[in-house]
Amino acid sequence: MDKLTISCNVTILAFDELNDMEKNLVVAAQNATANSYSPYSHFSVGAAVRLTDGSVYTGNNQENASYPCGLCAERTALYYANAQNPNTPVVSIAIAAKNVDGFLKTPITPCGACRQSLLETENRFNQKITVYLYGTEGIYRVDSIADLLPLQFTL
Question: pTM to 2 decimals?
Answer without folding.
Answer: 0.95
